[in-house]
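[audit] Reproducing an earlier prediction to check determinism. Same input, same settings, fresh worker. If the C-alpha cells differ from the archived copy the diff job will pick it up downstream; this log only records the rerun itself.
[audit] input (183 residues):
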Amino acid sequence: MKKNGFLTFCFAFIPGAGQMYQGYMKRGLSLISIFCVGIMISAIFSYATVLLPIVWMYSFFDTFNLRSAPYPVETDQYLIPVEWLEKGKAFVKKRPTLVGAILILLGVWTLFDTFVAPILSYLAILAGVNEIYYYTFYRNLPALAVALAIIYAGFRLAFGKSNQEKQDFEEFRGGNYNDEAHG
C-alpha cells in the first residue's frame, strides 16, 4: 500500500525517515546512522562534510524509488552488512594496539584543534607573527603527522623483526620424547 505522497515528501528530507515511513526500518536506520556518524566525523575533520550531501541525496531519491516501485523492492536489509561489523570486531581484537593508537591520535588531534590551536593563534598574533605563516603551518599539521606515520611504518617493515619469524620457529630445548608411549 502506497503511503501519503505529501508525508513521503516531507519525510524524504530527513535521511532515513522516508525509508522508515515506507516500512523499511533497517534501511532507514542504516541511513540515519551513516548520516549521524558523518556529522560526528565532520566535526573532527571539516573536509568530511563533503560526504553528507551525498548521503542526504541518496536517502532523498531512494525514498521515491521505493515509493514508485510497483512491488516491494526487496526485503528490508541493513545497508552495511552485519558480516562487515563482525570483521570489524575481529580486526579490533586482532590489532588492539593499532586501533588504540588511532583513537589516541584522533583524540589528541581533536584536543589540539579545539583548545590548543586557538590559544596558539592568539599568541602568534600577539607576538607579531604573520597569520599566513601560522595558518599554513597549522593546516599542514595533519599531512605532517601522516607523513611521519608512513615513515615510521616503513622503517618498522624494512628493519624491524616480523612476528612471523618469531612464531614459525620453536627452539628444541631437549627433554625426553615420551619414551613410554613409543617404546
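[audit] rerun output stored. Observation attached for the diff report: Residues 96-127 form the longest helix (32 residues).
[audit] end
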